[in-house]
Amino acid sequence: MTPDRRQFFTTAGLAALAVGTGALTGCGGDSSSGQGGATLTVPASTIPVGGGRILDNANFVVTQPEAGVFKAFNKMCTHQGCPVSDIVGADVHCRCHGSRFSIVDGAVTQGPATKPLRAAKAVLEGTDVIVSA
Ligand code: FES
To answer: What is the mean pLDDT of the segment spanning 31-53?
Structure first.
């Protein structure tokens, strides 16, 4: 490898690292209206007990199956990748083909999906839920 090519790849690697670092630190505060970064802060009061909320501008569904217990999932349906559309009762629905998933653990409650929603982390800190992939 010539020095020019080596320098290019080193520079490209640093640029990729910078982008990744920005994604990790770029989302703070009430980011329920922010882009889908690595960490989001969502006011706990906006997540209904026995239901949940599909974040508009982030890749997560945040649920509260019982008071004070928060769960988060990637909002992309595991069937063919549509974003889930609604939360009705204890199920997260995908309108594309009718799959449903439990708000408790993301398990499939109705196909055609066969795999659960991908779990994310949800941690209650004070009055906020901190959500991360
Ligand atoms: S993509 Fe969700 S049911 Fe098909």
So the answer is: 78
CATH 2.102.10.10 fits 29-132, yes or no: yes
With H, G, I as helix, E, B as strand and everything else as coil, classify residue 123: strand
pLDDT for residue 80:
96
Report which protein residue has its CA nearest ligand 1's atom 1: 80
Q: Quote the pLDDT of residue 57.
A: 86
| pLDDT at 37 (0 to 100) | 52
Distance from C-alpha of 48 to C-alpha of 52, rounded to nearest angstrom:
5
Ligand 1 touching residue 108 (CB < 6 A)? no
> Distance of CA 28 to CAs 75, 112, 132, Å?
20, 36, 12
Atom of ligand 1 nearest to the CA of 112: 3
What distance in Å separates the CA atoms of residue 113 and residue 94, rounded to the nearest whole number? 10
Over residues 30-41, mean pLDDT: 57
96 lines ligand 1 (CB under 6 A): yes
